[in-house]
Amino acid sequence: MLLVEALLLKALAIPLLARIAWLDFTTQRIANRDVLLLLCLGVGSLLLLALRSGSWWDMGLSAAAGLVLFLALFPFWVLRKIGAGDVKLMAVVPFLTGGADLVVFSMLLLVFALITAAGMKNPFLLPAGAFRVYVQHLDRKGVVPFGVPISVAAICTTALVIYESVVLASSSGILNQLN
Asked: In whole angstroms, what is the distance from residue 43 CA to residue 63 CA?
């Protein structure tokens, strides 16, 4: 049952990540409240998985990755190249995805960051006129809502983890035993 609760906590993080992405895109702000709630969901999920498996390796790897990301991105915040909310969000995402899926998250983040950069530099590739005007406004201000690709990559990674867990549970016969 601990696996189900851990997956439920991960699933609850998906709408929160969508909210963070939307608010970062529209207001260029990531609320500390949202980041702390995301941290609680991630740590709770990792704790349940650690209790189930008896291994704290994933929790330690996530904490180390979060600390490394925070320390690596902090100078960019000091230089005003990235927002403080983006730094905090990047430091929290390893707790949500887990240490084993950080490579998947990193690859997805790279893809979505490149798409975001292309959209910001070439707003004429975007579909809607009003959307295009807003992106041009962000480009003139010199603002890139980096929380959007972080959140989208985390949503995709979390959805993949949930999908893999459900497929594993159904193929191993655990779901049949629960019925």
From this structure: 9
